[in-house]
Design goal:
single chain; DUF4143; eight-stranded mixed β-sheet; six-stranded mixed β-sheet; 18 helices; alpha/beta; P-loop_NTPase
Length: 451
């Protein structure tokens, strides 16, 4: 079984008897159902699971359910023998977005308190935005991502003691010895190939066959593209086009979305596709990085520019699209291949999974810095530059950025293939795999207001 960090959060929430219902959001195929089922069956004698998408395609028992009494009646038709007491009965509502009215009903199920509940779904951001009555204070919403680098390392044989040692080295800014660094880079490059989608990771662990891994990744990529299309007929072509453009955008120098390329129409702007971008981001299949030109802590209050970068939610899908079954491009660090886009994708997914909101610096005169994050300890902005080549010390835009006194930058990081950890002024050079230790508070959205 693959270790997932979110299992501890789920277990702690259920053990704490929190009156709120935990709602696990995330893209399809990231392992939500599996991990909830695993934890739920361990903790509760009676585990009841209802997949609302399957119900919507079949008997539609819950299609018209809008009251607690009706919900219990329908549930009893399926699992009446397991409906015991709150302390020993967990009701898992999977793919709850299939019936948006059930999101509103969660509030009343929580108040009734007859059983313990947990729910999961995809496209919850889209569904919640279209729901007229959000269960304020009754749900705790957390987002689940594909396996991050640490989880991938654990799946590949590193134990938690080794990870703890690596973390202490990072905190003390101590470089690894040459052999350990090479091992970490080997595993990191394999992560670039495999990514963090559970089915792809399991295929890799079972077979070490890149063709099997790629088959899984291409199937999920196609599934994401089709899934993004079927939920909104009026915008499906534009949504699909934006999604399909992400890999090619990553290969461009600036990597950002160009609105006029989406439909090949001059005069189109970012605002013309705001809903389409929001759809892909809310679905969890794209990660958004917002541009700012005058950054100050906290970044969420900084006035942003109307520019956006989109990254795929999984680096394995990206490397499959770019390099196919040829693993040499990544494992052998071929000089003619620029791995900048896959490195940046890993950093984006790691930062997002660790609770960071993603921003980048864009200045017409000074250039770009790959990522900006908030540091809540120093109450300042931290710039991060990602380098995949040997010229990792060349970064004029970052130099201008840290030297701008208006920004009050206290520290900056450059992530690259280097083993040594060095400091030059405010800039610290780190090996790329240390991105797994850039931790923040878990991303949660706890409160919703009733319009």
């Amino acid at each position: 079984m693959l270790y997932r960090k979110i299992s501890r959060l789920i277990e702690d929430h259920l053990r704490a008897q929190d009156p709120r219902i935990l709602l696990v959001d995330g893209a399809r195929q990231v392992g939500k159902t599996y991990i909830i089922r695993y934890v739920g069956k361990q903790l509760f004698e009676n585990f009841i699971e209802v997949n609302m998408v399957e119900d919507s395609l079949g008997e539609r028992l819950f299609a018209q359910t809008r009251s607690v009494e009706d919900f219990y009646l329908q549930l009893s038709m399926l699992h009446g023998d397991k409906m015991k007491e709150k302390r020993n009965t967990l009701v898992f509502l999977d793919e709850i977005q299939a019936y948006p009215q059930l999101l509103t009903l969660l509030k009343f199920l929580a108040q009734d308190g007859r059983f313990t509940y947990i729910a999961s779904g995809s496209l919850l951001g889209v569904t919640l935005a279209q729901t007229t009555s959000i269960p304020m204070g009754s749900i705790r919403k957390v987002r689940m991502y594909p396996l991050d680098l640490e989880e991938f390392l654990l799946a590949n044989g590193l134990n938690k003691t080794a990870i703890s040692t690596l973390r202490r080295k990072f905190q003390a800014r101590q470089a690894l010895d040459e052999a350990t660094h090479n091992k970490m880079m080997d595993l990191f490059r394999k992560y670039l190939l495999v990514g963090g989608l559970p089915d792809a990771v399991n295929a890799f662990l079972e077979s070490r066959n890149i063709q099997r891994v790629r088959e899984v990744q291409r199937e999920i990529h196609d599934y994401y593209a089709a899934d993004a299309s079927k939920y909104d007929a009026g915008r499906k072509l534009k949504i699909r086009r934006i999604y399909d453009l992400i890999p090619s955008n990553m290969e461009n120098r600036k990597k950002r979305v160009v609105a006029q390329q989406i439909e090949n129409k001059r005069g189109k702007t970012f605002g013309d596709y705001q809903d389409e971008f929001e759809y892909l981001i809310s679905a969890g299949i794209a990660l958004n990085v917002q541009a700012v030109s005058n950054p100050h802590f906290p970044l969420a209050e900084t006035e942003g520019k109307n520019l956006l970068k989109l990254y795929l939610n999984d680096v394995g899908i990206l490397s499959a699209l770019l390099y196919g079954n040829n693993i040499r491009a990544i494992l052998e660090d071929v000089r003619s291949i620029n791995l900048g886009s896959v490195y940046e994708t890993v950093v984006a997914s790691e930062l997002a999974a660790h609770g960071h909101k993603l921003f980048y610096y864009d200045n017409r005169n000074r250039g770009e810095v790959d990522y900006l994050i908030d540091d809540y300890n120093s109450l300042s902005v931290v710039p991060i530059e990602v380098k995949s080549g040997k010229d990792y010390t060349v970064h004029s835009a970052l130099n201008h950025f840290v030297n701008n006194e208006e920004y009050h930058i206290q520290t900056a990081f450059v992530l690259s293939n280097t083993r040594e950890i060095t400091e030059k002024g405010k800039i610290t050079y780190l090996p790329i795999y240390d991105i797994m230790f850039f931790e923040n508070q878990p991303a949660e959205e706890n409160t919703y207001l009733i319009p």
